[in-house]
User: What shape does this take?
Amino acid sequence: MALRSTRKARGCWSFIRALHKGHEAAPALQVSEHTQLSWILSCMVRLPRLQHLHQWKAKTAKQKHDGMVGLLTYPVLQAADILLYKSTHVPVGEDQVQHMELAQDLAQGFNKKYGEFFPVPKSILTPMKKVKSLRDPSAKMSKSDPDKLATIGITDSPEEIVQKFRKAVTDFTSEVTYDPASRGGVSNIVAIHAAVTGLSVEEVVRRSAGLDTARYKLVVADAVIEKFAPIRSEIEKLKMDKAHLEKVLQVGSAKARELAYPVCQEVKKLVGFL
Assistant: This one.
């Protein structure tokens, strides 16, 4: 289990490095204060609150209501990840807004009981708040989707990206328009096109005049491939230097713990553990 976690962390870190090309960051690998604070916060939240979170309901419905406790309490761990560093602003997708509200409520509840300690974090939403599935425009795009054609991965090959856009669900109207209410599939592709090019939705639609949706899908696929190419190249380069990645992880973990340890100790004093 520990080995799998380390390998996964190494892969995630190569992805983060490729996106930011930075050297000074603090991943939370092996920082036990995260789970310690998570347990303390879990003692401050009632079971029905977690059971009513939409992601828990959606995922347990797919699992025939056989969801694991780890999935149920994961939003509390997310809150601990945020509050442990006294974060004030957190970039999130629209699907994480409920989880951020939980973090805010936990911060306020802790402050009310033990005195002002945690800042109440605010959500930062990007202009494209949610990317929809290529196969089901009513659902969000998710890396856990069993349909591999539904999700675009940054490390996907150009051939895989083209195939996924070719198979993307649209409708029987060939014109490219943006109308999420009645043309969810095409509108999702337009939104993705706008996001990767930096153009407005209106400009994307204007430039796509005269294209049918089949040809337009390939235009968007090319735009996504172009956007992801330097990131994918950097990831592959970083993955070849595992020793360097492991060193960066170790240094980052030490820095993360340096920040997390005093906050966790103070929380323990406030709640009476120390």
